[in-house]
Amino acid sequence: MGRLVFLFASSFLLMVAATTVSAAIVEHSFNVMDSTLIHFPLESQAGSRLCNRHVITAANGRLPGPSIRAREGDTLIIHVFNKSPYNLTIHWHGIHQMLSAWADGPDMITQCPIRPGNKYTYKFKIIKQEGTFWWHSHTSTLRATLYGAIIIRPRAGSSYPFPKPYREVPILLGEWWNGNVVDMANQALAHGTGPNISDAYTINGWPEMYKLKVKQGKTYLLRITNAAVDNNLFYKIANHKMIVVAIDARYTNPYVTDVLVVASGQTIDVLLTADQPIGSYYMAARAYASAAGLEFDSTTTRGLIVYEGAPSWTSRTPLMPVLPAFNDTPTAHKFSTSLTALVGGPHWEPVPLKVDHKMFVTIGMALDVCPSNTTCQGPPVGAKLSASMNNVSFVPPSSLSLLQAFFFNVRGVYTTDFPVKPPVQFDYTNPSINGDRPLLFAPKGTRITKLKFNSTVEMVMQNTAIIGAENHPMHLHGFDFHVLAQGFGNFKPATDTLKYNLFNPQIRHTIGVPVGGWAVIRFVANNPGVWFMHCHFDGHLPIGLATAFVVENGPTPETTLPPPPVDLPQC
């Protein structure tokens, strides 16, 4: 008996030791400053990207910025030194920040910005999450060049729920402007217009000629992120199928496809087997532009997949994939609705069946009154372009972050009266509503929603045709959500609730709400703090397509938000 007790005790100690060893501290320093690009996309070009030398705001002089690699259970410590001329914050996109809301990063939501010449250390633990994430600036449009990959692998001793790939490759799809992105964004805001159209899309920082070398017969895990500022994207590889195995760092049932649709802010993991004849094949991405009549960047970015032993691609034209039409909504919708969660897989969570807080939220564009002595050029001329959720155009506070106001119980910074339904019911997706001018103007406010700890929220997000319908990528901080259903037209409770997938719906943190349609999400508010929800198009965020949730503390110290770090930036 004593021997059995000894063996059990020894085994337990070994388990504890293994758990302790598998959790590490991963530390990085980001020196954020203006940097001049010094490398070239094509040998024949005499300048840098798109033939122009260009000064960008970047971390450690790199585009994309440094990749962060860790394991589930690790603690990340990121020192950010702001040597740029701009205020900035960094957001760790998709990381739940369980009990570490102070590290989430959205400007004036969880922190005041890091002023030029100052620094801030983000510290947080990766809890019950693994997969492809990314980091980016959450101030103005700096994330056009200030972003990078976060790769969280399973704990030591754990494995993927699919065969181990030969190699893992981050693929970051971005967007490029031949100009100062901050100046352009400020000009658009001042004139009340939409964002400037980008000059190119990029793959790992390159408009063209990113090159991935592969071995025939080997399988690669491509970790794909849409880091574009204002566009959803189609992505294909010539003559190759891909198997989707995860979305937004949540495992899926394997889904075979030759085309991906990646909304701004989303990540997709795919297995790519190099099963074609030895040669060179283009990977390519371009816009999924769902808004009718709206100008957009119609360029295509290309990279190369080069098989080992292939002749030089300069001597033989690589195969180019046939991408969908820019407005191919049926292809986008088919892909987005065909994905399902891997039931029983790592970190899978069943759909909560009891709903405590129901919301019906309209999302879309709006108008704002042009200030006196100002020339506004928004549609229509004489008004400013705006955006809203339930006819509330969100305005962030200016003197204190929402999280500070919540934690220290400071009144007058926000109100908790965000409406659970639109103040006026109308035919949401009918373009004729644009003739009802009073309906187009949304009042400004910092109106948010207060939630009890561990309550379950169900939200119907209804796209509208005000100013024009568009596929809006809506991102929720602090949580993932189950996507119960998606569809077109106006949501009809009597029939559309019957379409809910309560068994294996996809789990995400960012959902592209169908153009002229709706999506239903459900999540459990089990993370105390203030959590931002917003459109991930940077052109829509500063004009009000956002809201926030205040989640109260739980009943125990383990469910209570700790005080802020001593070096938290002050306004």
Automatic annotation (TrEMBL):
List GO terms (cellular component aspect).
apoplast
Q: Which reaction does it catalyse?
A: 4 hydroquinone + O2 = 4 benzosemiquinone + 2 H2O
In which broad location class does this protein mainly occur, judging by the first location in its UniProt entry? Answer: secreted
Q: Name one GO biological process term.
A: lignin catabolic process
**Keywords from the named record:** Apoplast, Copper, Glycoprotein, Lignin degradation, Metal-binding, Oxidoreductase, Repeat, Secreted, Signal
Q: What Pfam families would the database entry show? A: Cu-oxidase, Cu-oxidase_2, Cu-oxidase_3
Enzyme Commission code(s) on record: 1.10.3.2
A GO molecular-function term, please? copper ion binding
Signal peptide (from-to): 1-23
Q: Does the keyword Mitochondrion apply?
A: no
What cofactors does this protein use? Answer: Cu cation
Q: Where in the cell is it found?
A: Secreted, Extracellular space, Apoplast
In this chain the Plastocyanin-like domain maps to 48-156, 168-310, 417-554
Out of the domains of life, which is the source? Eukaryota
Top EC group = oxidoreductase
What the record notes about the co-factor is: Binds 4 Cu cations per monomer.
Family in the record: Belongs to the multicopper oxidase family.
- What's this protein's function? Lignin degradation and detoxification of lignin-derived products.
Q: What is this protein called in UniProt?
A: Laccase
State the species of origin: Gossypium klotzschianum
